[in-house]
Automatic annotation (TrEMBL):
TM segment ranges: 292-313, 348-367, 544-563
Compartments where found: Cell membrane
Gene3D superfamilies (UniProt xref): 1.10.287.70, Periplasmic binding protein-like II
Predominant cellular place of this UniProt entry's protein: membrane
Name of a matching Pfam family: Lig_chan
Gene Ontology biological process: detection of stimulus involved in sensory perception
Family: Belongs to the glutamate-gated ion channel (TC 1.A.10.1) family.
Name of the gene this protein is made from: LOC112693269
Protein name: Glutamate receptor ionotropic, delta-2-like
Domain Ionotropic receptor 75a N-terminal: 15-152
GO cellular component, one term: plasma membrane
Length: 587
């Protein structure tokens, strides 16, 4: 849409806002102003919104006035910036009263006054076409070493335990030095990745200098007021952020995103897969179903009865077992593949014992192989939800990192199981740990740690063995969030930063920095090769039920012995009393 206004439109009742209003169907507006017809030298523009990218201005100037562009902009209160579309056209000479040649200038500033510089580019005519640019930002990517205020996160650790583990100070030079340093402490990797991207973007592409300010919050709305990074952007304390921020709908109302990155933000629970607690308790009963156990016991009783019947009628002068308890004990020994101490003289007894040995051999093979395979192939508990995590009995900790603790508390507001986990397992023990300490606990087992895997997986690669890496599981409680850099609402630098960010992505610089700072989940290689480490060892907890069974047996044996001694002592006393009584009667 092109709008032309003449001399009569610049009267006192001229409503500029009404005339230059935009609509959904007319998002762009072209305006031609002929200043040679305007005799009102006191007229000036009062609003900066007229110079945003939605308005394309062509201003026809008086002849030989191109030397006073700065004075003209100041007089008319035209405050330009890098996204302004303003062309000034000056006539050069005339022929028969008609202007034949023109000088056209593309003017803009690198920033609103008083910052930045006024840039005046000559637009040349080539083959009847004015200008040869494809995009206006082709020639505006050089901001002439402009200094802008930016914001990042300073001390993001220790918010839950009221401690501070980082060496970031308020000094801008020390802050820049820290963000450019690759430390083995594996901390602040999100901030360092963000700075690496924005440094390449601002210095190498835009020729821009950043003055870094810090805050301790990414920006959350509390009591209808935004804090942290977003709060500083709204108040104008910073022009854009040099820290990644998750893209969320509620933030789009007050700020805008630019230079979307490939860094995904997805805090998750990491833990080593626990073994089933029922495995160690019933490992010696699990090989057979209950009906099989009842069948074995029934067969033992039947063979005992048959054996007793045969031996009852057998005449053996060397060794004869005639008590049911002795025969039953002998049958248990046969089932356990133990030999018999008696000499069998009858064919019927030999036949029944032979059948029992064959039966015990087959049962023993099935039983022992099942136990061995059960011990060496542990049963894994699959934890796929917060409810299963709560019921698993694992200890739980949370990384003492600003955004991680914030997301955990936000999840607790909507998920009752997360709230239960925090209230009963985290807060009573103050299980807020730094990433390295939390990963060490995960290595020991029976521990779930809520952390940002993008940094914690560096510690996993450093500390875990290959076998332990294969046991590692991950439980995200939210979807992965796409991240980007924040700019002020209606910022003139949004498009410029976005174009520069795409350039870094296309040239591979962003992927290179991602590989340096973003840790990926370790791959399991122990399961593909057989090594000494990959072999499973049977621990004491796997056979603890056997020791308990033996201990109970020892206790029952001792109690039985004491009862036998007491009964035997009482019997002897009774016999002695009867003997003394009979002697007295005889006298």
């Amino acid at each position: 849409m092109i709008l032309y206004r003449g001399k009569e439109d610049f009267n006192n009742d001229f409503n500029l806002k009404k005339v230059l209003s935009l609509s959904l169907y007319s998002p762009l507006l072209g305006v031609i102003v002929d200043w040679s017809c305007n005799e009102d030298l006191s007229f000036e523009f009062s609003d900066n919104w007229l110079w945003n990218s939605s308005y394309h201005w062509l201003m026809i100037m008086e002849k030989n006035s191109n030397k006073n562009i700065r004075s003209f902009l100041s007089t008319k209160n035209i405050n330009l910036t890098v996204w302004s579309e303003v062309f000034l056209a000056y006539p050069n000479n005339t022929m028969y009263g008609i202007f034949k040649n023109w000088h056209i200038f593309d003017i803009y500033r690198t920033a609103y006054e008083p910052r930045g510089q006024l840039m005046i580019d000559v637009v040349n005519e080539t083959f009847g076409k004015w200008g040869n640019r494809i995009c206006k930002y082709d020639k505006r990517s050089n901001l002439e070493n402009l200094t802008l205020d930016v914001v990042t996160i300073g001390n993001a650790y220790g918010s839950a335990t009221k401690t501070n583990s980082t060496s970031i100070t308020a000094s801008n030079k020390e802050l820049v030095k820290y963000l450019r340093t690759y430390n083995l402490d594996r901390m602040n990797y999100g901030q360092k990745f963000s700075y690496a991207i924005m440094y390449s973007l601002t210095r190498n592409v835009l020729n821009l200098t950043m003055y870094i300010k810090t805050t301790n919050s990414w920006g959350y709305k509390t009591n209808n007021k935004w804090d942290g990074v977003i709060g500083m952007l709204i108040s104008g304390e910073a022009d854009f952020s040099v820290i990644l921020n998750a893209i969320r709908p509620e933030r789009l109302e007050v700020v805008e995103y630019s230079a979307i990155t490939t860094w995904e933000h997805c805090p998750s629970f990491i833990f080593r897969q626990p073994r089933s607690s029922s495995t160690s308790m019933n490992i010696f009963l699990r090989p057979f179903e209950m009906n099989v156990w009842f069948a074995i016991i029934g067969l033992m009783l039947l063979s005992t009865l048959v054996y007793y019947t045969i031996i009852y009628f057998e005449s053996n002068e060397v060794f004869i077992l005639k008590t049911l308890s002795d025969i039953f004990l002998l049958k248990i020994g046969t089932l356990c593949q133990q030999g018999t101490v008696m000499e069998l003289t009858k064919l019927s007894n030999r036949f029944i014992v032979l059948l029992m040995f064959l039966f015990s051999l087959i049962v023993y093979q099935f039983y022992s192989s099942s136990i061995v395979s059960g011990l060496l192939r542990p049963t894994i508990i699959n934890i796929d939800s917060l409810r299963e995590l709560d019921e698993s009995g694992l200890d739980v900790g949370i990384e003492d990192y600003n955004i991680v603790t914030k997301l955990a508390n936000m999840a607790a507001e909507t998920n009752p199981y997360m709230k239960k986990i925090i209230d009963k397992k985290v807060k009573p023990k103050s299980e807020y740990l730094f990433a390295k300490d939390g990963v060490k606990k995960v290595k020991k087992g029976h521990y779930a740690f809520y952390t940002d895997p993008a940094s914690s997986y560096w510690f996993v690669n450093d500390i875990f063995t290959e076998k332990e890496k294969c046991d590692l599981s991950e439980l995200p409680i939210t979807r992965p969030e796409v991240t980007g850099f924040l700019v002020q609402k209606n910022s003139p630098y949004r498009k410029l930063i976005n174009i520069a960010g795409n350039l870094l992505l296309e040239t591979g610089i962003m992927d290179r920095e991602l590989q340096i700072w973003y840790a990926k989940k370790p791959k399991c290689v122990a399961g593909k090769t057989t090594t000494e480490e990959s072999l499973v060892s049977v621990g004491i907890k796997d056979i603890i039920s056997l020791y308990i069974f033996l201990l109970v047996g020892f206790i029952v044996s001792i109690i039985t012995l004491l009862l036998e001694k007491i009964i035997h002592h009482l019997i002897n006393i009774k016999k002695q009393t009867d003997t003394n009584r009979s002697i007295v009667l005889q006298k």
